[in-house]
Amino acid sequence: MQARGLGQFRLSRNPDKVIDCVYIAASPGDARYTRTCVASVRYFCGDIPIRLLVGGCLQRGLADELRKYWNVGVADLPRGDYGWGFVKLEPLFGPSGERFLVLDSDTVLTGQVIEIWNECPAPFLVDDEQQSEADTKRLYYDWEKVREIDQAARPPEFVFNSGQWFGTAGVLTRDNFAPWVEWTIPRATSPHGYFMNGEQGILNYVLNQKAIDGLRVDRSQIMRWPGHSMHGLDAETVSKWAAEPRVVHWAGMKRVRQRDMIGADLLAYFEKVYYQRLPSGGARRFFAGWRDALSQSLLGARVRIKLASGRLAARSASVSTKVTS
Q1: Segment (H or E) for 266
Q2: What is the mean pLDDT of the chain?
Q3: pLDDT score recorded for residue 288
């Protein structure tokens, strides 16, 4: 299947509502996904500004490559390790009134998702996610526990994965997060253990509390998680602009070899689109895939060694306690 030419960005329903920027959270371990994400955004959204949210460092040469061949910039933020996901909060504090979409790197668009927001007058639009009470507490926050530190806490009206959401800068301030977020490098929530998964839990909490006070936060079907279904979102359908506009997000589903992943055909398609713009694109793609697989294997090995060391230290401490008791 040949990769189709890039799509042209168009707002067919309400041209007065224009999104200003797509922000993509990028990290050194997700360089391959960053490339496919960028290609999918350009495919369906044309020349819309794209900026990387860099919360640490990037793969060497990636920023220059994206700038030169894909007109992608880097958000003007202080450099440093922001901690897990916290760099995705920074667009909230950008130029007042800027309308944006935040994406994780391990996502691709399957259509003009941006047009979903053009039908919503709200300053925020999030995925209409359905979770059990237990999973809400595990993935986001336990409102009853949070109530120990904030008497205003109420049960959440909605929850959403923070790998894809629309927002407007200047509506929320750092002070809205300040009681629970330490704006240090790296960022951290306080007290520890009340808000889950990096910035995800605290962002859900603040938006829910503001919604109680009257802030409008609309919900719509935005995300498709491959673990549930990829029906209708295969590469052939997406390439023909015949698929539902969604953000496919491989949250928690990445593998060392992309071909082993659910929806691998979609990743492969946009990877082809990406490298069509680069000189010697076929060779570059081959070596980038090999480099990514090696990097993921080494990362997995380091994690396993760290876990094994932790278990060994715990057993040693247990034995030492028994001997001295």
Answers
A1: helix 264-275
A2: 88
A3: 77
- Give one DSSP letter per residue of 52-70, joined into a string: EEESS---TTHHHHHHHHH
Dist CA 320 CA 241 (whole Å): 64
From residue 319, alpha-carbon distances to 175, 306, 312, 315, 323 in Å are: 48, 20, 11, 6, 6
**For tokens 């061949």, what's the residue?**
69
pLDDT at position 295 is: 63
For residue 118, is it within any domain? Answer: yes
**Both ends of the chain: CA-CA distance in Å?**
69
pTM score over 0.85? yes
Instruction: Give 210-232 pLDDT, tens digit per residue.
Output: 999 999 999 999 999 999 999 99
Residue 320 belongs to a domain: no
- Tens of pLDDT, residue by residue over 130-161, are 999 999 999 999 999 999 999 999 999 999 99
Structural domain count of the chain? 1
Question: Residue 196 falls within a domain, yes or no?
Answer: yes
pLDDT of residue 13: 35
CA distance 163 to 247: 9
**Calpha distance 25→15 (Å, rounded):** 27
Strand partners, 102: 23, 165
Q: Residue 155: which residues within 8 A CB-CB, separation 6 or more?
A: 143
In the three-class reduction of DSSP (H, G, I as helix; E, B as strand; rest coil), residue 107 is classed as strand
Burial of residue 88 (number of CB atoms within 10 Å: 0-12, 13-18, 19+): buried
Residue 45 pLDDT > 90: yes
Structure tokens at 271: 């990877």
AA identity, residue 52: L
Asked which of 5-9, 171-175, 223-227, 231-235 is least confident by mean pLDDT, the reply is 5-9
DSSP state for residue 22 in the 8-state scheme: E
Domain range spanning residue 89?
21-278
